[in-house]
Design a protein that fits this description.
Elements: H1 4-20, E1 27-32, E2 35-41, H2 44-47, H3 54-66, E3 75-80, H4 84-93, E4 97-102, E5 128-130, H5 135-150
Parallel strand pairs: 3-4, 4-5
Antiparallel strand pairs: 1-2, 1-3
């Protein structure tokens, strides 16, 4: 069985795909029974789609592969703390466990600004949430991307 760090490295590999096409380097993988059932990376610019976040793409991919929107036996690994939209989708998908890399103090909705995934007022909460896993790698991808963007 792989560790959280192993799965986060897979999410980082997805983020690197975004970086290759000049997208904000955020990546995500959905895991079920030790296998990737969904993967995604940011495609907002390429698709001209404000919802094309890594998590949204990975959740949709997993739902199609699992043939169910209920991903209650799945775990999501994402390189950056999910935003409110993605946190809401994580709740709707019934994700069991959420692991993310770097915290996002400006848009994070799983602890930084809000905590949507553990909000008891909602009909579902994520059972386990871990932040800061391989955060330095995820932060480095983001910092390098924005330095490069400013230098253009």
């Amino acid at each position: 069985m792989k560790t959280d760090e192993d799965y986060m490295n897979l999410a980082i590999m997805e983020a690197e795909k975004a970086l290759e096409i000049d997208e904000v380097p955020i990546g995500a993988v959905v895991i079920y029974n030790d296998k990737i059932v969904g993967r995604g990376y940011n495609l907002k610019e390429r698709d001209s789609d404000p919802t094309a976040h890594a998590e949204m793409i990975a959740l949709k991919d997993a739902a199609q592969n699992m043939q169910s929107w209920r991903l209650d036996k799945c775990d999501l690994y994402v390189t950056i703390e999910p935003c409110p939209m993605c946190a809401g989708a994580i709740v709707q998908a019934r994700i069991r466990k959420l692991v993310f890399g770097a915290f996002d103090p400006k848009a994070g909705a799983t602890g930084s600004l809000y905590n949507i995934v553990e909000d008891q007022r909602l009909n579902h909460q994520v059972s386990e949430v871990k932040g800061g896993i391989l955060a330095e790698k995820s932060q480095r991808l983001m910092k390098d991307f924005f330095i490069k963007l400013r230098n253009k």
